[in-house]
Amino acid sequence: MKTKLDGHYTTNWEEVIADRMKEAKPSAIREILKVAQDPTVISFAGGLPAPELFPIREFREACEYVLTNNGQQALQYGPTEGYRPLKEWIAETVMKYGVPAVPENILLTNGSQQALDLVGKVFLNEGDAIITDEPTYLGAIQAWNPYRPKYITVPLDKQGTRVDKVEEVLKEHKDVKFIYVLPNFHNPAGTTLPLERRQKLVEIAAKYGIFIIEDDPYGELRYEGEDLPPLISLHKENVIYLSTFSKTLAPGVRLGWIIASEQVIQKLVIAKQGSDLHTSTFIQYIVYDICHRGILKPHVKRIRKVYRERRDVMLKAMEEHFPKEGFTWTHPEGGLFLFVWMPEELDAQKLFERAVKEAGVAFVPGSSFYPNGGGKNTMRLNFSCMPPERIKEGIKRLGKILKDELERVKK
Amino acid sequence: MKTKLDGHYTTNWEEVIADRMKEAKPSAIREILKVAQDPTVISFAGGLPAPELFPIREFREACEYVLTNNGQQALQYGPTEGYRPLKEWIAETVMKYGVPAVPENILLTNGSQQALDLVGKVFLNEGDAIITDEPTYLGAIQAWNPYRPKYITVPLDKQGTRVDKVEEVLKEHKDVKFIYVLPNFHNPAGTTLPLERRQKLVEIAAKYGIFIIEDDPYGELRYEGEDLPPLISLHKENVIYLSTFSKTLAPGVRLGWIIASEQVIQKLVIAKQGSDLHTSTFIQYIVYDICHRGILKPHVKRIRKVYRERRDVMLKAMEEHFPKEGFTWTHPEGGLFLFVWMPEELDAQKLFERAVKEAGVAFVPGSSFYPNGGGKNTMRLNFSCMPPERIKEGIKRLGKILKDELERVKK
């Protein structure tokens, strides 16, 4: 508990760390993102929205309006549940997807990341099992690791979660707490779960009395095809739904929301009260003002157009420059990412190092997204943050490295 | 795990809640604050800063400046550690209190409440003991309860923590993880720890190899006497220091900070990354702009003047209207609160109900601040949020109820 130093006892911090955090290390992806910040690097690494699309003028107007008309309220403490008019706006908006929500079903959070943490805090006992895709969203693993669950993974294919495998897992494992899925434009995989799989998944969950965490940060960013019903619209009582303003408005506001039954929201509110009292009142007032004025819908339309083009440019360049044999990748209908499976001989970490050094191109090696290890021959590519010309150039350079590395390992 | 309803299995949420949250209930204080929100009630209940003092014009200017000059950065994702220029500003500011900090010693958080939660997440194993005052800050108990520690309390007197009792506890208990103290203008007690007790406390902590959580949200709000050195300036390596912009600028920004050794900050950063990625970039840019322009110092001077007057008005009215025998209260040198110990026969919860109903006056019964129960004959009075005339009137009415209740119980 103590070490002697210069005649004083000082705390040995390594020893006093709680067990849950002993093994926690800074995520490998953060190191990658540091490399990718170099402006000379063509980065497909981060999950950043394109900052040139942020509605800065609208934010300025909203700040002016809120501070002129509601300054005292916007700067004061507020309720843990969140600013009611914004919750009403969200309730109205999700109606169009068939989600029957009232403000009592909604909790506003500091981005979806806090929603994931609160879910872990409220539901996870040490050793509980969670079913996730393989690969799955890294942020969820980071949020839940401190609660020390175990992850049981099911593979995904180009249509997302292999729902048939979920039932196999549930038959075998009796300690599953919940199933975590990203049905729309999966991070990192870029897949979208078809309607039949959605229906089958909520059926299986209901049959085994398991609930579902539906993570939907990208749902509004669809570039082709029809909107599909969220899982929560198919079985309201069994699904906890998460979404965010990060991808439609701006991530810097850190504002997301949870939709669930009132009983679940009440528990999450208690957890959030201990976690940070409430989300910034000021941010909630500003975002409400922007939403309320009807700015979000046309703004999202503009984002879709730009990202759709970037996705198309990336896919076309990959067709042209990536090796074919043993390579396969997703064709995302929306979102920010696509995922590449490569021949087993290729190591994405090594490729990353070569790509940055020799070609000035960054991506994220896929293994970070495998909760139980694996995925060494996979990578995630982001297409939202680079202009088309740089995407073309970056994919061309990356293709060259891939071909070269492929030849090297075959020798 | 499941109950059958209308032919569907639906989740029985009570059953799937994690053990850590099973007993968590909405805090009693929230119900009290709801009553106190009635504008006809004279409220000494909340811990709200006076909203008429919020620097709204300065916020408007800051929003305009930030969005015009740094809009893209301020709305984008940012580092978990926080916005570096703001950390540099904090480091410079705390220097005047003798705290030798560089940005690497600082983590920005969503108010002090998140700092408390992160401390719990990083350090508390189930069953670890924490030494706290009795009474102590309710928000700390709420933050830590999910990590299931036990609380060993030491009494406080009008000079704050009975440091002599801390050593007694440490001799007896070998499972103490840390000591939690609020040396300046304690919430709820309004006490300030004298220099000798500060020195003694860090000595004892060092002797037993225990670290200290120093919570200092009110340090800038001193109305009389000299600033005293924070504990962290007396023994940097053993102290984790928490503060916030909530009381000096505005609580609606939800912005606080932790100062600790670099090693501790690194662990807290990993925990925060899982909790919510980072605090709102936009909020950090705005608060930095306000701080950077030198607005905070004269603004805090203005707050001090107003709150000092309100404290004086409350203390004078209490002298005049409160019963004397068996009553004692603190004379706070700063902060927002004072604390009243009443004769054992009086029940503050019952008094609260009578005061609201018969006199339209609200306060917080002190028992909420006793982690292991007790304090039924105590109450916390806030003096920052009501104008002087209402303070006078409220204390007069409350005094009448107290005298009446005293007579009633003596019969």
Structure at a glance:
Chain A is of the alpha/beta class and 411 residues long. The first copy, chain A, has helices at 13-16, 19-22, 28-36, 56-75, 84-95, 111-123, 138-144, 163-172, 195-208, 231-234, 262-276, 281-292, 296-321, 348-359, 388-410, and strands at residues 2-5, 8-11, 42-43, 106-109, 129-134, 150-157, 160-161, 176-181, 211-215, 239-244, 256-259, 328-329, 337-341, 361-362, 364-365, 378-382. Chain A folds into two domains: 26-54 and 298-410, Aspartate Aminotransferase, domain 1; 56-294, Aspartate Aminotransferase, domain 2.
Please provide a written account of the structure:
The structure is a homodimer of 411-residue chains. The longest helix of chain A has 26 residues, at 296-321. The first copy, chain A, folds into 2 domains: 26-54 and 298-410, Aspartate Aminotransferase, domain 1 (Alpha-Beta Complex); 56-294, 3-Layer(aba) Sandwich (Aspartate Aminotransferase, domain 2), CATH 3.40.640.10. Chain A is α/β, with parallel strands linked by helices and 411 residues long. An 8-stranded mixed β-sheet of chain A has the order 4-11-10-9-8-5-6-7, sandwiched between helices. In chain A, strands 12-13-16-15 form a 4-stranded antiparallel β-sheet. Chain A starts with a strand and ends with a helix. Mean pLDDT of chain A is 94; it is low at 1-7. Helix content of chain A is 45%, strand content 16%. Chains A and B meet through strand 1, strand 2, helix 2, helix 4 and helix 6 of A and strand 1, strand 2, helix 2, helix 4 and helix 6 of B.
